[in-house]
Amino acid sequence: MPVTVNPVEGDPVQPLAFLGASPEPAVVVDADGHVVYANPNACRLLAYDAEDALVGQPVKAILPDLAMPLTEPAIAEQTAVRRGGWPLPAEVAIIPVVDQAAAILVVRDLTDRKRAATAESRLALVVRSSHEAIIAWTLDGVITDWNPAATELYGHRAEEVIGRRTRELVPAHRQAEEQEILAKIGRGEVIARHHTVRHRADGSPIKVSISVLPITDDSGEIVGGASISRAVTSNELAEAKIVGLLEAAPDAIVAIDASGRIVLANAETTRMLGYPREDWRCARDAAMLVLWRQQVHGTPRDRPGRGSCPSR
Hints:
- The chain is α+β, with helices and mostly antiparallel strands.
- Strand 2 and strand 3 form a beta hairpin.
- The radius of gyration is 33 Å and the shape is elongated.
- It is 27% helix and 28% strand.
- The protein contains 9 helices and 13 strands.
């Protein structure tokens, strides 16, 4: 809305001196369209060394798209021009000054906002183009984003599920698991490649592999989560079943590839040989498991510290 100030004889800008303390970049323009005052923040924003270098300039030199006269309040995005001709995306608020035949122009730098919007647009394009289902939701499980791949995987269109809760996609016997996922995300934890079951739109179950990570705001506070999911293939299901059987076996089982390198050792192997699984990566062949147990690791009580790999 227009501002009313009391004129000071011989100094039409004096009543507007309060702008000098304003955190917003502001300039004052007279009825002829010339800058008669610029506060320090405006000088810094527009790359002028001092107010005197900007005062007297036509306002069109810094805001070429500004519509004259400046008699009505308005806010619009424009391109400001910094000293040297460098363009600057800006939001310009026009505040007419009653009884002064002038206007205050508040010029806000939109560079960061534009950069963030560009990054957000690129991210949105990546999400839309992804072949994996990507779903975002609030901390209490309200769905906020749903990409086309999620529609293909689960059968629901975005407009059908946005605003609903994630638990509606979860079978009854997995509800406790879903609550635990929400709790972990609230604590900032990341869940990687978790195999679970979800409902499709037609009510049929689908086995999926999901990875879930927290979403934070600009201050770093966790505000929600995002899941990336895909259907589990028959090969993955078969592999998971085999691994599960091996883990549950009462005997020590070691799997090796064609070159003799260890690719899997079950829990009983770890218990029997007495050292942790992180040492498996050091073994070149199955024979070394026994050799290390005898020559390097000793008994579980006198075994040296973890993390070192003995030489062959």
